[in-house]
Design a protein that fits this description.
The chain contains 18 helices and six strands. By secondary structure, the protein is mostly helical.
Protein backbone atom coordinates (compact mmCIF):
# COMPACT_ATOMS: atom_id res chain seq x y z
CA UNK A 1 0.00 0.00 0.00
CA UNK A 2 1.32 3.40 -0.93
CA UNK A 3 1.96 5.59 2.08
CA UNK A 4 0.64 9.19 2.20
CA UNK A 5 2.94 11.79 0.77
CA UNK A 6 4.89 13.73 3.33
CA UNK A 7 4.37 17.48 3.39
CA UNK A 8 6.69 19.34 1.08
CA UNK A 9 8.04 22.63 2.31
CA UNK A 10 9.83 25.31 0.36
CA UNK A 11 11.08 28.64 1.55
CA UNK A 12 10.07 31.95 0.10
CA UNK A 13 11.98 35.18 0.55
CA UNK A 14 10.41 37.49 3.08
CA UNK A 15 10.95 41.09 3.88
CA UNK A 16 13.79 41.73 6.26
CA UNK A 17 16.05 39.12 4.67
CA UNK A 18 14.42 36.13 6.42
CA UNK A 19 12.65 33.21 4.85
CA UNK A 20 9.20 31.98 5.81
CA UNK A 21 8.03 28.42 5.18
CA UNK A 22 5.36 27.99 2.51
CA UNK A 23 3.72 24.59 2.19
CA UNK A 24 2.87 23.29 -1.24
CA UNK A 25 1.60 19.81 -0.26
CA UNK A 26 0.12 18.16 2.82
CA UNK A 27 -0.37 14.70 4.28
CA UNK A 28 -3.92 13.91 3.12
CA UNK A 29 -4.61 11.32 5.85
CA UNK A 30 -4.87 13.97 8.59
CA UNK A 31 -7.92 15.59 6.98
CA UNK A 32 -10.10 12.49 7.15
CA UNK A 33 -13.02 12.47 9.61
CA UNK A 34 -12.02 11.65 13.16
CA UNK A 35 -8.36 12.67 12.76
CA UNK A 36 -6.24 15.35 14.39
CA UNK A 37 -5.07 17.96 11.90
CA UNK A 38 -1.53 19.30 12.29
CA UNK A 39 -1.27 21.38 9.10
CA UNK A 40 -3.99 24.03 8.75
CA UNK A 41 -3.60 27.22 6.68
CA UNK A 42 -7.04 28.62 5.79
CA UNK A 43 -5.52 31.90 4.56
CA UNK A 44 -3.53 29.93 1.95
CA UNK A 45 -5.85 30.12 -1.08
CA UNK A 46 -4.54 26.95 -2.75
CA UNK A 47 -4.92 24.95 0.45
CA UNK A 48 -8.37 26.39 1.16
CA UNK A 49 -9.76 25.55 -2.26
CA UNK A 50 -8.22 22.09 -2.51
CA UNK A 51 -8.70 20.83 1.04
CA UNK A 52 -9.55 23.36 3.73
CA UNK A 53 -13.01 24.46 2.65
CA UNK A 54 -14.37 20.91 2.44
CA UNK A 55 -13.00 19.95 5.86
CA UNK A 56 -14.12 23.18 7.52
CA UNK A 57 -17.62 22.88 6.08
CA UNK A 58 -17.97 19.30 7.30
CA UNK A 59 -16.95 20.30 10.81
CA UNK A 60 -19.33 23.27 10.75
CA UNK A 61 -22.41 21.32 9.72
CA UNK A 62 -21.79 18.69 12.38
CA UNK A 63 -21.39 21.41 15.01
CA UNK A 64 -24.65 23.18 14.12
CA UNK A 65 -27.22 20.50 15.11
CA UNK A 66 -25.20 19.59 18.21
CA UNK A 67 -25.30 23.22 19.33
CA UNK A 68 -29.01 23.55 18.49
CA UNK A 69 -29.96 20.63 20.75
CA UNK A 70 -27.64 21.94 23.49
CA UNK A 71 -29.71 25.16 23.42
CA UNK A 72 -32.85 23.02 23.69
CA UNK A 73 -31.52 21.49 26.91
CA UNK A 74 -30.57 24.94 28.23
CA UNK A 75 -34.05 26.34 27.55
CA UNK A 76 -36.21 23.32 28.34
CA UNK A 77 -37.15 24.72 31.77
CA UNK A 78 -38.57 27.90 30.26
CA UNK A 79 -41.46 25.74 29.02
CA UNK A 80 -41.45 22.91 31.56
CA UNK A 81 -41.85 25.25 34.54
CA UNK A 82 -45.05 26.76 33.12
CA UNK A 83 -46.67 23.28 33.00
CA UNK A 84 -45.77 21.93 36.44
CA UNK A 85 -48.80 23.36 38.25
CA UNK A 86 -51.10 21.73 35.69
CA UNK A 87 -49.91 18.23 36.67
CA UNK A 88 -50.05 18.58 40.45
CA UNK A 89 -46.84 20.35 41.54
CA UNK A 90 -47.47 22.94 44.24
CA UNK A 91 -44.50 25.25 43.75
CA UNK A 92 -45.08 28.97 44.20
CA UNK A 93 -44.78 31.49 41.39
CA UNK A 94 -41.44 32.63 42.82
CA UNK A 95 -40.15 29.06 42.90
CA UNK A 96 -41.19 28.51 39.27
CA UNK A 97 -39.36 31.70 38.32
CA UNK A 98 -36.16 30.40 39.90
CA UNK A 99 -36.49 27.09 38.06
CA UNK A 100 -36.52 29.10 34.84
CA UNK A 101 -33.68 31.40 35.89
CA UNK A 102 -31.17 28.93 37.41
CA UNK A 103 -30.10 27.47 34.04
CA UNK A 104 -29.07 30.99 33.05
CA UNK A 105 -26.69 31.24 36.01
CA UNK A 106 -25.11 27.82 35.52
CA UNK A 107 -25.00 28.22 31.75
CA UNK A 108 -23.14 31.52 31.94
CA UNK A 109 -20.72 30.25 34.57
CA UNK A 110 -20.02 26.99 32.73
CA UNK A 111 -19.39 28.97 29.54
CA UNK A 112 -16.38 30.60 31.19
CA UNK A 113 -14.91 27.16 31.87
CA UNK A 114 -15.85 25.79 28.43
CA UNK A 115 -14.25 28.80 26.73
CA UNK A 116 -10.82 27.62 27.76
CA UNK A 117 -11.44 23.86 27.89
CA UNK A 118 -12.73 23.71 24.31
CA UNK A 119 -9.52 24.78 22.54
CA UNK A 120 -7.44 22.68 24.98
CA UNK A 121 -9.45 19.55 24.15
CA UNK A 122 -10.26 19.99 20.44
CA UNK A 123 -13.41 20.43 18.37
CA UNK A 124 -14.14 16.73 17.85
CA UNK A 125 -13.55 15.52 21.38
CA UNK A 126 -15.22 18.43 23.10
CA UNK A 127 -18.30 18.47 20.87
CA UNK A 128 -18.85 14.74 21.42
CA UNK A 129 -18.25 14.79 25.17
CA UNK A 130 -20.14 18.02 25.92
CA UNK A 131 -23.11 16.70 23.91
CA UNK A 132 -23.36 13.24 25.47
CA UNK A 133 -23.24 14.53 29.08
CA UNK A 134 -26.51 16.40 28.47
CA UNK A 135 -28.31 13.06 28.41
CA UNK A 136 -27.98 12.90 32.22
CA UNK A 137 -30.11 15.95 33.21
CA UNK A 138 -32.70 15.14 30.55
CA UNK A 139 -33.25 11.59 31.81
CA UNK A 140 -33.39 12.87 35.39
CA UNK A 141 -35.88 15.56 34.36
CA UNK A 142 -38.08 13.06 32.53
CA UNK A 143 -38.25 10.88 35.64
CA UNK A 144 -38.76 13.76 38.08
CA UNK A 145 -41.71 15.45 36.35
CA UNK A 146 -43.74 12.23 36.52
CA UNK A 147 -43.93 12.48 40.32
CA UNK A 148 -45.57 15.61 41.81
CA UNK A 149 -43.92 14.73 45.15
CA UNK A 150 -40.45 15.40 43.71
CA UNK A 151 -38.81 17.91 46.03
CA UNK A 152 -38.03 21.46 44.97
CA UNK A 153 -34.36 20.92 45.79
CA UNK A 154 -34.16 18.07 43.28
CA UNK A 155 -35.83 20.22 40.63
CA UNK A 156 -33.34 23.04 41.24
CA UNK A 157 -30.46 20.57 40.85
CA UNK A 158 -31.88 19.32 37.53
CA UNK A 159 -32.38 22.88 36.31
CA UNK A 160 -28.78 23.71 37.19
CA UNK A 161 -27.48 20.71 35.23
CA UNK A 162 -29.65 21.60 32.23
CA UNK A 163 -27.92 24.98 32.24
CA UNK A 164 -24.70 23.27 31.17
CA UNK A 165 -26.26 22.95 27.70
CA UNK A 166 -25.85 26.70 27.29
CA UNK A 167 -22.10 26.38 27.85
CA UNK A 168 -21.59 24.39 24.64
CA UNK A 169 -21.95 27.61 22.68
CA UNK A 170 -18.68 29.02 24.03
CA UNK A 171 -16.58 26.01 23.10
CA UNK A 172 -18.30 25.52 19.74
CA UNK A 173 -17.83 29.12 18.59
CA UNK A 174 -14.27 29.31 19.91
CA UNK A 175 -13.30 26.13 18.07
CA UNK A 176 -15.15 26.57 14.79
CA UNK A 177 -13.58 29.97 14.14
CA UNK A 178 -10.16 28.36 13.76
CA UNK A 179 -11.33 26.42 10.69
CA UNK A 180 -12.19 29.42 8.50
CA UNK A 181 -10.23 32.23 6.82
CA UNK A 182 -10.72 35.82 7.90
CA UNK A 183 -13.13 36.65 5.06
CA UNK A 184 -15.51 33.82 6.04
CA UNK A 185 -15.35 33.90 9.83
CA UNK A 186 -18.42 36.12 10.21
CA UNK A 187 -20.51 33.90 7.96
CA UNK A 188 -19.27 30.69 9.61
CA UNK A 189 -19.86 31.83 13.18
CA UNK A 190 -23.17 33.34 12.08
CA UNK A 191 -24.31 30.00 10.72
CA UNK A 192 -23.09 28.08 13.75
CA UNK A 193 -24.39 30.53 16.33
CA UNK A 194 -27.54 31.50 14.46
CA UNK A 195 -28.80 28.03 13.66
CA UNK A 196 -27.64 26.86 17.08
CA UNK A 197 -29.72 29.64 18.66
CA UNK A 198 -32.78 28.15 16.93
CA UNK A 199 -32.82 25.64 19.76
CA UNK A 200 -34.44 28.37 21.87
CA UNK A 201 -37.44 28.66 19.58
CA UNK A 202 -37.47 24.92 18.84
CA UNK A 203 -38.04 23.99 22.47
CA UNK A 204 -40.75 26.65 22.89
CA UNK A 205 -42.53 25.52 19.72
CA UNK A 206 -42.15 21.74 19.98
CA UNK A 207 -42.65 21.16 23.71
CA UNK A 208 -46.36 22.16 23.84
CA UNK A 209 -46.94 19.71 20.98
CA UNK A 210 -44.98 16.67 22.19
CA UNK A 211 -46.27 16.71 25.78
CA UNK A 212 -49.75 15.94 24.46
CA UNK A 213 -48.59 12.97 22.34
CA UNK A 214 -48.88 9.43 23.65
CA UNK A 215 -47.08 8.03 20.59
CA UNK A 216 -43.58 8.92 21.84
CA UNK A 217 -44.40 8.69 25.55
CA UNK A 218 -42.21 6.74 27.96
CA UNK A 219 -44.02 6.37 31.28
CA UNK A 220 -47.52 7.09 32.50
CA UNK A 221 -49.72 10.02 31.58
CA UNK A 222 -50.42 12.84 34.00
CA UNK A 223 -53.75 14.60 33.99
CA UNK A 224 -54.67 18.26 34.15
CA UNK A 225 -57.51 19.49 36.35
CA UNK A 226 -59.96 19.07 33.46
CA UNK A 227 -58.84 15.47 32.88
CA UNK A 228 -56.73 16.14 29.79
CA UNK A 229 -53.81 13.67 29.65
CA UNK A 230 -50.30 15.02 29.20
CA UNK A 231 -46.88 13.41 29.12
CA UNK A 232 -44.62 16.17 30.46
CA UNK A 233 -41.67 13.78 30.42
CA UNK A 234 -41.77 13.85 26.61
CA UNK A 235 -40.22 17.31 26.72
CA UNK A 236 -37.05 15.69 28.08
CA UNK A 237 -37.04 12.14 26.71
CA UNK A 238 -37.60 13.27 23.10
CA UNK A 239 -34.07 14.68 22.90
CA UNK A 240 -32.12 11.84 24.54
CA UNK A 241 -31.66 9.67 21.41
CA UNK A 242 -30.97 12.79 19.36
CA UNK A 243 -28.10 13.73 21.67
CA UNK A 244 -26.63 10.24 21.50
CA UNK A 245 -26.66 10.25 17.69
CA UNK A 246 -25.13 13.73 17.50
CA UNK A 247 -22.35 12.82 19.92
CA UNK A 248 -21.45 9.74 17.86
CA UNK A 249 -21.47 11.75 14.62
CA UNK A 250 -19.21 14.40 16.17
CA UNK A 251 -16.76 11.81 17.50
CA UNK A 252 -16.36 10.05 14.16
CA UNK A 253 -17.02 12.95 11.77
CA UNK A 254 -15.25 16.04 13.09
CA UNK A 255 -11.57 16.90 13.46
CA UNK A 256 -9.35 18.30 16.17
CA UNK A 257 -7.03 21.12 15.12
CA UNK A 258 -3.60 20.95 16.70
CA UNK A 259 -3.11 24.63 15.94
CA UNK A 260 -6.12 25.42 18.13
CA UNK A 261 -4.88 23.41 21.11
CA UNK A 262 -3.84 26.03 23.64
CA UNK A 263 -3.26 25.75 27.41
CA UNK A 264 -5.00 28.20 29.72
CA UNK A 265 -1.64 29.71 30.68
CA UNK A 266 -1.46 31.18 27.19
CA UNK A 267 -5.16 32.00 26.81
CA UNK A 268 -5.39 34.06 30.00
CA UNK A 269 -3.59 36.93 28.28
CA UNK A 270 -6.99 38.05 26.96
CA UNK A 271 -7.89 39.46 30.37
CA UNK A 272 -5.19 42.10 29.87
CA UNK A 273 -6.61 43.20 26.50
CA UNK A 274 -8.82 46.29 26.56
CA UNK A 275 -10.78 45.07 23.55
CA UNK A 276 -11.78 41.90 25.42
CA UNK A 277 -13.83 44.03 27.80
CA UNK A 278 -15.13 46.44 25.16
CA UNK A 279 -16.41 43.61 22.97
CA UNK A 280 -17.87 41.89 26.02
CA UNK A 281 -19.86 45.06 26.71
CA UNK A 282 -21.19 45.06 23.13
CA UNK A 283 -22.01 41.35 23.11
CA UNK A 284 -23.87 41.65 26.40
CA UNK A 285 -26.04 44.16 24.55
CA UNK A 286 -26.73 41.84 21.61
CA UNK A 287 -26.72 38.23 22.82
CA UNK A 288 -27.60 39.16 26.40
CA UNK A 289 -30.72 40.84 25.04
CA UNK A 290 -31.51 37.92 22.72
CA UNK A 291 -31.34 35.21 25.37
CA UNK A 292 -32.87 37.37 28.11
CA UNK A 293 -35.82 38.44 25.98
CA UNK A 294 -36.31 34.81 24.90
CA UNK A 295 -36.59 33.74 28.53
CA UNK A 296 -38.79 36.69 29.52
CA UNK A 297 -41.20 37.01 26.58
CA UNK A 298 -43.57 34.18 27.63
CA UNK A 299 -43.85 35.80 31.07
CA UNK A 300 -44.40 39.26 29.59
CA UNK A 301 -47.17 38.05 27.29
CA UNK A 302 -48.88 36.13 30.07
CA UNK A 303 -48.72 38.83 32.73
CA UNK A 304 -49.23 41.88 30.51
CA UNK A 305 -51.90 40.83 28.02
CA UNK A 306 -53.54 37.55 29.05
CA UNK A 307 -55.81 39.20 31.64
CA UNK A 308 -57.04 41.45 28.83
CA UNK A 309 -57.56 38.81 26.19
CA UNK A 310 -57.15 35.08 26.84
CA UNK A 311 -56.41 34.52 23.14
CA UNK A 312 -52.91 35.95 23.67
CA UNK A 313 -51.17 32.66 24.40
CA UNK A 314 -47.48 32.64 25.29
CA UNK A 315 -47.12 29.19 23.71
CA UNK A 316 -48.56 30.50 20.44
CA UNK A 317 -46.31 33.51 20.00
CA UNK A 318 -43.26 33.34 22.28
CA UNK A 319 -41.20 31.10 19.97
CA UNK A 320 -41.35 33.60 17.10
CA UNK A 321 -38.90 36.10 18.62
CA UNK A 322 -36.01 33.65 19.18
CA UNK A 323 -36.57 32.21 15.70
CA UNK A 324 -36.30 35.64 14.09
CA UNK A 325 -33.21 36.51 16.14
CA UNK A 326 -31.46 33.22 15.42
CA UNK A 327 -31.93 33.49 11.66
CA UNK A 328 -30.92 37.16 11.69
CA UNK A 329 -27.62 36.20 13.33
CA UNK A 330 -26.61 34.38 10.17
CA UNK A 331 -27.48 37.44 8.10
CA UNK A 332 -25.58 39.70 10.49
CA UNK A 333 -22.36 37.73 10.08
CA UNK A 334 -22.73 37.59 6.30
CA UNK A 335 -23.39 41.34 5.97
CA UNK A 336 -20.55 42.20 8.37
CA UNK A 337 -18.09 40.25 6.21
CA UNK A 338 -18.96 42.61 3.37
CA UNK A 339 -19.41 46.09 4.84
CA UNK A 340 -17.63 45.82 8.19
CA UNK A 341 -18.72 44.55 11.57
CA UNK A 342 -18.67 47.85 13.45
CA UNK A 343 -21.11 49.52 11.07
CA UNK A 344 -23.52 46.61 11.32
CA UNK A 345 -23.19 46.54 15.11
CA UNK A 346 -24.14 50.22 15.33
CA UNK A 347 -27.14 49.66 13.06
CA UNK A 348 -28.22 46.77 15.28
CA UNK A 349 -28.13 48.86 18.47
CA UNK A 350 -30.00 51.73 16.84
CA UNK A 351 -32.63 49.24 15.69
CA UNK A 352 -32.87 47.62 19.13
CA UNK A 353 -33.26 50.97 20.88
CA UNK A 354 -36.03 52.11 18.51
CA UNK A 355 -37.75 48.72 18.78
CA UNK A 356 -37.85 48.85 22.58
CA UNK A 357 -39.20 52.41 22.46
CA UNK A 358 -41.96 50.96 20.27
CA UNK A 359 -42.60 48.17 22.79
CA UNK A 360 -42.97 50.78 25.54
CA UNK A 361 -45.43 52.73 23.41
CA UNK A 362 -47.69 49.68 22.96
CA UNK A 363 -47.73 48.54 26.61
CA UNK A 364 -50.96 48.99 28.58
CA UNK A 365 -50.78 52.24 30.53
CA UNK A 366 -53.02 54.89 32.08
CA UNK A 367 -56.06 52.61 32.00
CA UNK A 368 -55.55 51.80 28.33
CA UNK A 369 -55.22 48.24 27.10
CA UNK A 370 -52.25 48.94 24.84
CA UNK A 371 -51.81 46.97 21.63
CA UNK A 372 -50.71 43.34 21.74
CA UNK A 373 -49.97 43.23 18.02
CA UNK A 374 -47.90 46.41 18.16
CA UNK A 375 -46.08 45.04 21.21
CA UNK A 376 -45.35 41.74 19.44
CA UNK A 377 -44.24 43.39 16.19
CA UNK A 378 -41.80 45.68 18.00
CA UNK A 379 -40.45 42.80 20.06
CA UNK A 380 -39.87 40.79 16.90
CA UNK A 381 -37.93 43.77 15.53
CA UNK A 382 -35.85 43.86 18.72
CA UNK A 383 -35.06 40.16 18.28
CA UNK A 384 -34.17 40.75 14.63
CA UNK A 385 -31.67 43.51 15.41
CA UNK A 386 -30.20 41.60 18.35
CA UNK A 387 -29.54 38.70 15.97
CA UNK A 388 -27.92 41.01 13.45
CA UNK A 389 -25.68 42.37 16.20
CA UNK A 390 -24.81 38.87 17.43
CA UNK A 391 -23.41 38.06 14.01
CA UNK A 392 -21.56 41.34 13.50
CA UNK A 393 -19.88 41.45 16.93
CA UNK A 394 -18.48 37.95 16.47
CA UNK A 395 -17.12 39.04 13.12
CA UNK A 396 -15.46 42.06 14.75
CA UNK A 397 -13.52 40.08 17.36
CA UNK A 398 -11.11 38.21 15.03
CA UNK A 399 -10.58 41.33 12.93
CA UNK A 400 -9.72 43.43 15.99
CA UNK A 401 -7.19 40.95 17.30
CA UNK A 402 -5.62 40.35 13.90
CA UNK A 403 -5.16 44.10 13.43
CA UNK A 404 -3.67 44.40 16.91
CA UNK A 405 -1.09 41.64 16.46
CA UNK A 406 -0.22 42.02 12.77
CA UNK A 407 0.16 45.79 12.66
CA UNK A 408 3.55 46.67 11.12
CA UNK A 409 4.61 43.08 10.40
CA UNK A 410 5.52 42.17 6.78
CA UNK A 411 3.26 39.48 5.37
CA UNK A 412 5.10 36.22 4.77
CA UNK A 413 7.66 36.74 7.55
CA UNK A 414 8.13 34.36 10.45
CA UNK A 415 7.07 37.11 12.83
CA UNK A 416 3.84 37.59 10.87
CA UNK A 417 3.07 33.86 11.01
CA UNK A 418 3.59 33.74 14.78
CA UNK A 419 1.52 36.85 15.36
CA UNK A 420 -1.28 35.40 13.25
CA UNK A 421 -1.38 32.26 15.39
CA UNK A 422 -1.48 34.37 18.55
CA UNK A 423 -4.30 36.50 17.12
CA UNK A 424 -6.35 33.41 16.23
CA UNK A 425 -5.87 31.96 19.70
CA UNK A 426 -6.85 35.17 21.48
CA UNK A 427 -9.84 35.78 19.20
CA UNK A 428 -11.16 32.30 19.93
CA UNK A 429 -10.77 32.77 23.68
CA UNK A 430 -12.40 36.21 23.60
CA UNK A 431 -15.29 34.85 21.55
CA UNK A 432 -15.98 32.24 24.20
CA UNK A 433 -15.48 34.59 27.15
CA UNK A 434 -17.79 37.30 25.79
CA UNK A 435 -20.47 34.69 25.13
CA UNK A 436 -20.12 33.47 28.71
CA UNK A 437 -20.69 36.89 30.27
CA UNK A 438 -23.54 37.70 27.87
CA UNK A 439 -25.29 34.43 28.79
CA UNK A 440 -26.11 35.90 32.20
CA UNK A 441 -28.75 37.93 30.37
CA UNK A 442 -30.80 34.72 30.56
CA UNK A 443 -31.06 35.36 34.30
CA UNK A 444 -30.83 39.12 34.75
CA UNK A 445 -33.40 40.29 32.19
CA UNK A 446 -36.25 38.15 33.60
CA UNK A 447 -35.09 39.23 37.07
CA UNK A 448 -35.39 42.89 36.06
CA UNK A 449 -38.94 42.33 34.84
CA UNK A 450 -39.74 40.52 38.08
CA UNK A 451 -38.37 43.28 40.33
CA UNK A 452 -39.02 46.51 38.41
CA UNK A 453 -41.91 47.98 36.48
CA UNK A 454 -41.80 46.72 32.89
CA UNK A 455 -41.61 50.24 31.49
CA UNK A 456 -38.71 51.20 33.77
CA UNK A 457 -36.79 48.06 32.79
CA UNK A 458 -37.37 48.81 29.11
CA UNK A 459 -36.02 52.36 29.40
CA UNK A 460 -32.98 50.91 31.14
CA UNK A 461 -32.33 48.73 28.10
CA UNK A 462 -32.62 51.73 25.79
CA UNK A 463 -30.05 53.65 27.83
CA UNK A 464 -27.68 50.67 27.71
CA UNK A 465 -28.01 50.42 23.92
CA UNK A 466 -27.10 54.09 23.60
CA UNK A 467 -23.88 53.40 25.54
CA UNK A 468 -23.14 50.49 23.18
CA UNK A 469 -23.58 52.74 20.15
CA UNK A 470 -21.06 55.16 21.66
CA UNK A 471 -18.51 52.40 22.33
CA UNK A 472 -18.86 50.84 18.86
CA UNK A 473 -18.58 54.21 17.12
CA UNK A 474 -15.65 55.60 19.12
CA UNK A 475 -13.39 52.54 19.15
CA UNK A 476 -14.34 50.74 15.93
CA UNK A 477 -16.39 52.73 13.40
CA UNK A 478 -15.42 56.43 13.32
CA UNK A 479 -12.74 57.86 11.07
CA UNK A 480 -9.44 57.38 12.86
CA UNK A 481 -10.88 54.74 15.22
CA UNK A 482 -8.37 52.81 17.30
CA UNK A 483 -9.28 49.47 15.74
CA UNK A 484 -11.51 49.66 12.65
CA UNK A 485 -13.48 46.45 12.32
Amino acid sequence: MKSPAAPHVRTAPAEGGRSAPTRTSYDPAQYRPGRTITDWEPENELFWKSTGKKVATRNLWIAVPALLVAFVVWQVWSVTATNLADVGFTFSTSQLFWLTAVPGLTGGTARILYTFLGPMTGQRRFTALSTIVLVVPLIWLGIAVQNPDTSYGVMIAIAALCGIGGANFASSLANIGFFFPKRDKGNATGINGGLGNLGVSAVQLITPIVITSSVIAVGSAQHKADGTPVWLQNAAFLWVPVLVVLAVVAWFGQNDLKVAATPFSKQKVIFRRKHTWLMTWLYVGTFGSFIGFAAALPMLIKTTFTPIDAAYSAATYAWMGPAVGALARWAGGWIADRIGGARVTIISFVGMALSIVGVINFLPSGGGNGSFWGFLACFLCAFFFSGIGNGSTFRQIPVIFRNHHLRGLPEGSLAHAGALRQAEMEAGAVTGFTSAIAAYGFFFIPAMFANFAVTSAMWGFVAFYVSCIAVAWWFYARKGAESPS
